[in-house]
Amino acid sequence: MSVNGLKRAVAAIATYAAHPDPRAAIANTVALVIVSNQPFYPLYLCWAVSPVISPSYVTFLSTPLFAAVPAVMRRNVRLGRSLLLSAGIGNTLLCRIAFGAGSGVEVFLFPCLVLALLLFRRSERSFALVFAGMTFAAYLLPAETLGPPLHIYEPEEYLALQRLNFLSAASLTVLIGWLFAARLDTIPHSDETGGACET
């Protein structure tokens, strides 16, 4: 791809992610970052854990959902944010089924929890609480209800997988915090007061 073609692609992605609502724009950015990183997860797995990467293919089932977040956000902001959270929680559960409880993949529920508490306005606290509850429920789901993993790794491979998942989830959580900190001044005061007039 030429330099001009790359610039046009980057501009098109930025336009797709843009939204006048700062929270929606953050959600769009997070969704597209996840989309851009999902193809690399099997490579990270192969490099850091094991050449058996087939369980990671289940992550691609959620890729269309994450990619659709900005489009849905343009039609309905609340639905777009809900789609991002549903895709994140659902993808984590799929990965838990694929890799098993020893993989530490549940750590991806932490960025989901952070998003659940930050994406919704104070007047939408019920949505925040519902998604926070879903996140805790997904974490507390007994391993035996999910069935056996698609592949059983060696103990040292599970340790490496736990490290990989922790680093990935921690990086995503840091990104979310960074995006909110960078846009803190652009979030209207009314978002924080449930519709009160700005002063």
Describe this structure in words.
α6 (109-118) packs antiparallel against α7. This protein is 67% helix and 0% strand. The protein has helices spanning 3-17, 22-37, 41-48, 63-75, 77-99, 109-118, 125-140, 155-182, 189-192. The chain has 199 residues and is mostly helical. The protein has one domain.
Would you list the SSEs in sequence order as H and E? HHHHHHHHH
* Major pleated sheet: none
Number of domains: 1
- Taken as a percent bin, the fraction of beta residues is under 5%
What is the count of DSSP helices, taking H or I runs of 4+ residues? 9
Could you provide a short overview of the structure?
The chain has 199 residues and is mostly helical.
Descriptive terms for the model:
disordered C terminus; mainly alpha; 199 residues
SSE layout:
Layout: H1 3-17, H2 22-37, H3 41-48, H4 63-75, H5 77-99, H6 109-118, H7 125-140, H8 155-182, H9 189-192
